[in-house]
Amino acid sequence: MGFRKDFLWGAATAAYQIEGAYQEDGRGMSIWDSLTKEAGHVAWGENGNTACEHYHLYKEDVALMKEMGLTCYRFSVSWPRILPEGDGRVNEKGVRFYQELVELLLDAGIEPVVTLYHWDLPYTLYEKGGWKNPESVEWFAGYAKAVAEMFQGKVRYYITFNEPQVFVGLGYRLGIHAPFEKNEPSVISAITRNVLLAHGRAVAVLRSAGPKDIKIGMAPSSGCVIPKSETEEDIEEARRMSFEANKGGIGGGISWWMDAVFLGEFSKENKEAFGENVPQLTEEEWALVTQPLDFFGFNCYAGGGNLVPPNPYAYDRYSYQGSPKTATGWNITPDVLYWAARFYYERYKKPILVTENGLAAYDLVSLDGCVHDPNRIDYTHRYLRGLKRAAEEGIPVIGYIHWSFMDNFEWASGYDMRFGLVYVDYRTQQRILKDSAYWYRNVILSNGENL
Ligand code: NOJ
Fold it and tell me: Interior CA angle at 368 toward 362 and 370, to 5°?
């Protein structure tokens, strides 16, 4: 027994990272447009103004997805493209873009998986306090409603928030991502509360809009801790460490967010670690936050994420001096998809969807005009074997979505690190399928039998 017959084989992107066309057809500004102008925020002073020009080249891009045999495509809607002021007025041209994209995907037999929030908060809402403002809950509900109306029941898979730990942690605590702020724990606590409630409101809005078989989840960032060995003691230790409070900073751990959403509580460890900054919710608010979800989605690149300082990589057997790393410096830890699927299923009891996994490299075009990326193939092969083991042991794994469909704007790191299965030449916007894209096509064709 391997992957189920209807397994979703996908690739992912996010609006700000690929669309470009930042001032076209009535799009409003996001925090990433307006706040990255200040020097020092993004490598080489780069930004997403043009990115991959996907806004204009989406037909070509969907054709490439079809050629690769993808059965799903995860993308995000740019909030300011459809609601330029963040709430209220709808931008019809922006709406049409996403409607056409979804029509094309459906015609190509590719299931759209839509992320509502992948970090591009409308600038006008930022000026009103952004996620610090309790009104953000209703702004987000209004945005979810606009998205549901836009897709008229044609989209079945939704993700409310991408990586809350990261956009809150890097954006509001450490000042590395937009809006580049460094706030006190009490502010992170208030933001947590708003984001959790906004998630709940969006779930309610999406579910009441349909379709009937709608599937809603989240996409937290989550490299679990890999056991040192497969003895019961080591497995238990890794399990415990995977969910412990992130002592490196409030809001950084997976349990902080996912226990709230799936279990309706903050754990004892989080309460001990963050005391009065653990958000207080009324019974009614908890009911909103914990509405049942349909899958447990997670973005996963390396094991050992949620560890105690000083050395976050010192625990598992993949971490040693000179151990294999990707261009981002993240350890290559193939078993992480197995352990993550297992630990998250045990704790949250929902079907598992890998919403991101992949490798950054400094890919280049060779003399033969091709992009040879054996490291990406090897990385993905190994990680997928881990996921396959989970499926074979009976864990309900419903899909795997590779990050990324194509090279794109890697936030504060700019464009140097390439995550795509498709190479993008940013001078010409030419796309080239990398060797890994052809390899992935064969994996999909065999439904993972050849792994
Ligand atoms: C996490 C984010 O969701 C995505 O936007 C980012 O590019 C990748 N992982 C790689 O860092």
Answer: 45
Q: If 0-12 CB within 10 Å is exposed, 13-18 middle and 19+ buried, where does residue 43 land? A: middle
Q: 335 near 381, Cβ under 8 Å? A: no
More confident call, 249 vs 339: 339
Q: List the catalytic residues.
A: 163, 356
Q: Which residue has the tokens 């399928």?
A: 433
CA 198 to chain centre: 17
The reply to whether ligand 1 has any atom less than 6 angstroms from the CB of 222 is: no
Q: Residue 405 Cα, ligand 1 centroid: separation in angstroms?
A: 12
Check: CB of residue 374 under 8 Å from CB of residue 394.
Answer: no
| The two three-digit tokens of residue 242, written as one number | 């995977």
Alpha-carbon span 99 to 81, nearest angstrom: 13
Residues 448 and 382 sit within 8 Å (Cβ to Cβ): no
CA distance 14 to 63: 18
What distance in angstroms lies between residue 202's CA and the mean position of ligand 1's atoms?
Answer: 22
- Which strand (E) or helix (H) includes residue 376? helix 374-392
d(CA 173, CA 166): 10
- Per the CB < 8 A criterion, the answer to whether 127 and 58 are in contact is no
Ligand 1 neighbourhood includes 162 CB (under 6 angstroms): yes
Gap between the Cα atoms of 16 and 20, Å rounded: 7
Confidence band for 318, pLDDT divided at 50, 70 and 90: confident
HEC string for 306-359: CCCCCCCCCCCCCCCCCCCECCCCCECCCCHHHHHHHHHHHHHCCCEEEEECCC
Q: Is the CB of 407 under 6 A from ligand 1?
A: no
Q: Which residues contact residue 311 at a Cβ distance below 8 angstroms, ignoring those fewer than 6 apart?
A: none
Ligand 1 centre from 159 Cα, in Å?
Answer: 15
Return d(Cα 120, Cα 421) in angstroms, integer.
24
Does residue 369 carry a pLDDT above 60? yes
Please state the rounded mean pLDDT for residues 176-203: 98
- Paired sense of beta strands 422-425 and 72-76, if any: unpaired
DSSP letters for 50-82: STT-HHHHHHHHHHHHHHHT-SEEEEE--HHHH
Is the model's pTM score more than 0.85?
yes
The neighbour count for residue 291, using CB atoms within 10 Å, is 15
Q: Please work out whether the CB of residue 14 comes within 6 Å of at least one atom of ligand 1.
A: yes
Q: Does 298 score more than 60 pLDDT?
A: yes
